[in-house]
Design a protein that fits this description.
The strands form 3 sheets. Strands 5-6-7-8 form a 4-stranded parallel sheet. It has a two-stranded antiparallel sheet with strand order 1-4. Strand 2 and strand 3 form a beta hairpin. It contains 3 helices and 8 strands, in the order E-E-E-E-H-E-E-E-E-H-H. It has 232 residues and is an alpha/beta fold.
């Protein structure tokens, strides 16, 4: 009896940057390929059998992995909106621990909050792993703020001042950043897919080469901003 077993171990994925911890658990899956090899068969036939068996099991293993993997991507959803009546005000305190890697002591759900022209309460705050989609920060003073792994898809930052801020791995997809100021700001690993970047001030922005290449693909950046960034 020739047997080949492939075990796909249980894996749990935790999304700690959301307001509640979500886990996606995959139960163990076993693939077993077996066949009887009679002693009367020639060495050549046995060798050919092993090759066919290994190829077949390889295909089955690939199929099993691809069948399980899509569940992971499909389950990455945002948590329900927090029912905390003071959730918007929590941005004025920010996260008091961990300024990098999305570490936080309390989850920040700022979705749909309005901080238009807020000039004092956001400055220098740590907004690690904050959920900021569809919120309004137009004209706000967010100088020296620390945003690590924040989710700001569809948010509005028109005229927002991010001078001397640390913007690390923030998703600004489809956000409106027209006229925002990133002067002397660290932009590391952040994405701006389909974001509005007209008249954004990138003077002395600190950004990696790969991130710069991606940013320069945005067609809404005007010539002056491109010159500041060094886009070619």
């Amino acid at each position: 009896m020739a047997t080949l077993s492939i075990n796909l171990q249980q894996r749990a994925f935790s999304f700690r940057n959301f307001s509640t911890q979500h886990k996606i658990v995959h139960h163990p899956t076993q693939i077993r390929c077996s066949s009887t090899n009679e002693g009367s068969e020639s060495v050549e036939s046995s060798s050919q059998f092993k090759e066919i068996r290994n190829v077949a099991c390889g295909f089955l293993a690939v199929w099993a992995v691809t069948a399980v993997s899509p569940v992971i991507a499909a389950s990455q959803r945002l948590p329900p909106l927090s029912n905390d009546p003071n959730r918007c005000e929590r941005a004025f305190v920010g996260n008091t621990i961990g300024q990098a890697n999305g570490v936080y002591d309390k989850p920040l759900d700022l979705r749909f909050c309005d901080y238009t022209n807020e000039k004092s309460n956001l400055k220098g705050k740590s907004l690690a792993a904050a959920l900021m989609s569809d919120a309004k920060f137009d004209g706000a003073d967010m100088t020296e703020v620390i945003m690590s792994k924040a989710y700001a898809v569809g948010a509005s930052f028109k005229g927002t001042d991010f001078t001397n801020a640390v913007i690390d791995r923030v998703n600004f997809g489809k956000a409106n950043l027209e006229g925002a100021v990133f002067r002397n700001t660290v932009l590391s690993g952040s994405t701006f897919e389909e974001a509005q970047l007209k008249d954004v001030d990138f003077e002395d922005t600190i950004i990696g080469y790969i991130d710069l290449q991606k940013l320069c693909l945005n067609k809404t950046i005007n010539d002056d901003s491109r010159a500041n960034l060094g886009c070619r």
